Amino acid sequence: KKRGRRYPPLFSTPLWNVYEAIQSDWDKTNNICEGFNNGFAHLLSAQHPSMYKFINGLRRQQNLTEIKISQSIVGNPNTPNKKNKTVSWAEPVKKVVTDYHNREFEDFLQGISLNIYFH
User: Fold this and answer.
1) Mean pLDDT over all residues of the chain?
2) Using CA atoms, how far apart are residues 17 and 110, in angstroms rounded to an integer?
C-alpha cells in the first residue's frame, strides 16, 4: 500500500468466495480431483509407470468413462453418496447462508464461525 492506494487483491473475490457453492450444493474442495488421481494411480498399479503401462491405463480409464456415460444416458448414473460427516456439516452452514438476509451481519459471521469451530 503506497500513500493510501489500494492494489487489487492477489486472488479475486469470486475465486475464494463459496457463497454460490453453498447455495448450489457444489463440492467445496477438490476431493473429486484427488479421488480421480488416486483411482488412476491405482489403475496403473505403479508409482512410476512405463509409457506402455501409462497408455494402457489411459485406455482402461477411457473404457470406464464410456461405461459411466452410457449408464448416465440410460438413467442409471453412478454417483457416490456424500459422506454423512460432510452432509451433516454442510446443512447447518447452508441454513445460515440461506438466512443471510434475515440476520445482522455480525450474527451471520458468528453463525458461520461457530459451524467451522465445532466442525
Assistant:
1) 79
2) 17
65 lies in the same domain as 90: no
Task: Say what the pLDDT of residue 54 is.
Answer: 92
Rounded Cα–Cα distance for residues 109 and 26 (Å) = 21
Q: Which domain holds residue 99?
A: 81-118
> Do 16 and 64 lie in a common domain?
yes
User: Is residue 48 located within the same domain as residue 92?
Assistant: no
Closest CA to 21 of 90, 106, 104, 92: 90
| Number of structural domains the chain divides into | 2
- Alpha-carbon distance 55 to 103, whole Å? 55
Do residues 119 and 89 make contact, with C-beta atoms less than 8 angstroms apart? yes
> Rounded to two decimals, what is the model's pTM?
0.44
Q: Which of 85, 86, 89, 83 is nearest to 114 (CA)?
A: 89
- Contact yes or no for 96/111 (Cβ under 8 A): yes
pLDDT band at residue 62 using 50, 70 and 90 as cut-offs: very high
C-alpha to C-alpha distance for 7 and 97, rounded to whole angstroms = 29
